[in-house]
């Protein structure tokens, strides 16, 4: 299959969707991103890399980082599952409602409350954001990947909801470290800037059933399968059912406009377009992945 030509076709097909939706206005630094951007990259398990559009332009990964921190936490043991569930939330990603009904245990690791717990768990072994940076730099082969200071400062200044989530969980004994320290690490991990190419290459371990790009094993087969499963059911906020219906792949979105998706045994895909729908997912990104699975016939179903 000529993936380079296929990506060109997808870019043409989804052109009417590019610029639709709204950028993430609740983080001022993200609100200034040009909504007409679009990039897409495919990293194959044999190392081949293909891209179209702004596929090498860095953007704020935001919640896509949650896939990597979960993997790094699970690589050190599965204790995180005693602190966070694996069920779809059905509520917005920053909702406080379920935490009160469920005694401070977040519904899954990809909503904000769950991701804060994962960051807290990873912090047992050192700074979680630094661990994530070291991982994506090695997997992508780009040592220049870094936190965007402007985005981090902007996000930290508007983190009242995340602060409330963390303190609420702490009141139930579900935080191990001081809330300000966990929030600092969480904000920095979300504010890392990567391109579609960087993200796709960094996520290949999930397509390779736990193997990193150097051939070493990050996760066992079972753990890699389970991360893909949670991505499928929980990775696109409260639109996970619609995403599974349209795309049919494990995926994780971020309010920076990125979506990473996995075709087990074949490739990792990342698409970026900043315009978001009402549930926080990239409008053009979902459309592009829908076309990708339609044209390739690759899905997990």
UniProtKB/TrEMBL annotation:
<feature type="binding site">
    <location>
        <position position="162"/>
    </location>
    <ligand>
        <name>substrate</name>
    </ligand>
</feature>
<dbReference type="InterPro" id="IPR015868">
    <property type="entry name" value="Glutaminase"/>
</dbReference>
<comment type="subunit">
    <text>Homotetramer.</text>
</comment>
<keyword id="KW-0378">Hydrolase</keyword>
<feature type="binding site">
    <location>
        <position position="112"/>
    </location>
    <ligand>
        <name>substrate</name>
    </ligand>
</feature>
<dbReference type="InterPro" id="IPR012338">
    <property type="entry name" value="Beta-lactam/transpept-like"/>
</dbReference>
<feature type="binding site">
    <location>
        <position position="237"/>
    </location>
    <ligand>
        <name>substrate</name>
    </ligand>
</feature>
<feature type="binding site">
    <location>
        <position position="155"/>
    </location>
    <ligand>
        <name>substrate</name>
    </ligand>
</feature>
<feature type="binding site">
    <location>
        <position position="186"/>
    </location>
    <ligand>
        <name>substrate</name>
    </ligand>
</feature>
<keyword id="KW-0007">Acetylation</keyword>
<comment type="similarity">
    <text>Belongs to the glutaminase family.</text>
</comment>
<protein>
    <recommendedName>
        <fullName>Glutaminase</fullName>
        <ecNumber>3.5.1.2</ecNumber>
    </recommendedName>
</protein>
<dbReference type="GO" id="GO:0006543">
    <property type="term" value="P:L-glutamine catabolic process"/>
</dbReference>
<dbReference type="GO" id="GO:0004359">
    <property type="term" value="F:glutaminase activity"/>
</dbReference>
<feature type="binding site">
    <location>
        <position position="255"/>
    </location>
    <ligand>
        <name>substrate</name>
    </ligand>
</feature>
<dbReference type="Pfam" id="PF04960">
    <property type="entry name" value="Glutaminase"/>
</dbReference>
<feature type="binding site">
    <location>
        <position position="63"/>
    </location>
    <ligand>
        <name>substrate</name>
    </ligand>
</feature>
<dbReference type="GO" id="GO:0006537">
    <property type="term" value="P:glutamate biosynthetic process"/>
</dbReference>
